[in-house]
Amino acid sequence: MRHLLCSVLMLGLFVACGGQPEPFTHEVLNSYTPVKSQGRSELCWVYAMLAAIETEHIMRGDSVHLSVAYVAHHLRRDSMAPRSSRGMSVTLLRMIDRYGLVPFESMPDTTRPAPQWAFMLGNEYTPLEFAHSVCAPDEYVALTSTPAHPYGTEVLLCLPDNWTHERFLNLHPDTLLALAERAVRQGHGVCWEGDTGAPGFSWADGVACLSALSPFSKVTDDHCMAIVGLARDAGGQRYFIMKNSWGTGNARQGLLYMSFPYFRRNTISVVLPRSQL
Fold first, then answer.
1. What is the DSSP letter of 253?
2. What are phi and psi of 242, to 5 degrees?
3. Which residues of the chain have pLDDT under 70?
4. Could you give the angle at which helices 89-99 and 127-134 cross, rounded to 10 degrees?
5. Is 262 left (phi over 0), alpha (psi -120 to 50) or beta?
6. How far apart are the C-alpha atoms of 223 and 156, rounded to whole Å?
7. pTM over 0.85
8. DSSP 3-state of 224
């Protein structure tokens, strides 16, 4: 998923990275299911939003491991869906409201047929019943920050990946960052979507940090990740800890440390529990 946003999103202040910051000191590291690899698929939005839901349930003491393959199966059969399989994190919520969800063990890959039943802790559910048991309708809210519309209003982001035409609550960038930080501190699952092609993003090093020379440019919607923690570098700069879906082959075993200035500058949307507003 790579294309230009309709307007520049969240042009916040930024500071110099000063090179790769090591070591990081963790303030919060929430529990998460194993890091996965999306391979050559364009399903980061599925992996990331399901990862956020999984972290949410681990926090509640009700661990679940959810099937990406089940969503991919129905995506291929949805007449509205693009051939590219692109989408936004909030698209996943619409998909499971429509088709349901099953545990990973019920459909670990697309070589198996989509099951008609889901089983969890000795109980039998339809996929829709199971989906609503792990993610109730309207449990999550989609947030954005764009100066093109009044803060505090709902906006329709004119992005090709928003093919389900979801609306986002538009917030000041400081408010958006603060809500994301608070939700993570309280152990909740949070999903981030934004630009990973911007200067300062290094998957190999597992760091996304603006430098003083980073040019201002339009933010591109090209990736989604779950946020699973908070950290500081040796200089005290603050970071979100991201769980990615590109496997474990980087310096952080699949995690990535995103500085708060990078977040402010390159975020398109955040999805978090509505209770955190």
1. T
2. -105, 140
3. 1-22, 212-217
4. 140
5. alpha
6. 19
7. yes
8. strand
